[in-house]
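Structure tokens please, single chain.
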Amino acid sequence: MRNTSLALVAITALGLSAAALAEVPADKRAERMQQRFEQIDLDGDGKVTKEEMSQHRVQKHKAADKNGDGLVSQDEFSTMAVERMRKRLDRRFAKMDANSDGQLSQDEMGSKSERHFQRMDSDSDGVLTLEEMKAGKHHRRRGGRD
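Here you go.
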């Protein structure tokens, strides 16, 4: 049972990491992947062994297990997920907050929408057809981001 719990936590953590990576541009994904690799590569030799991966998994589990009982409860798991989401949202907010005043103006919030519109407007005529919108939605589902 304990091994099953550990496996589920590891699989879920990897899934959350993959989802987080899909939210960022390719160059940032590569940078974050490098950082994660370096965290797992404990001896810094440029290779990740099964033992290093196992130790990393144990460290992640211990970090999530706030009460130290050796198990990650639903509350502990939710706390871990919320903390990750909060960090991601904080990064996104900071990126949108062009003047760094801690608030988003209409222009700051709308800049992403404008970029998305421009990307979907494949013929650059200033209007979107249903086909362009469908193509844009399909692009986003396949991992394309603004």
